[in-house]
Input
Amino acid sequence: MLKAPQILVRTLVLAASAAALFGCGQRGPLYLPTGPAASQRATLPQTLTPGNDTSTAPPPAASASQPR
Output
């Protein structure tokens, strides 16, 4: 027979697992923002090494899906 602490721990673990599963991310397809505000955001390499000088980095290539 399960004791009260075991029931409480199992309930809390189940609730935490359900909350993590249902609350992890947005709905719908993923997308890359292409607006002007998105161009000012840091890239992944800039985020991983914030001390590097990025002024010499080449500009990002234009995507084929962007209208001209």
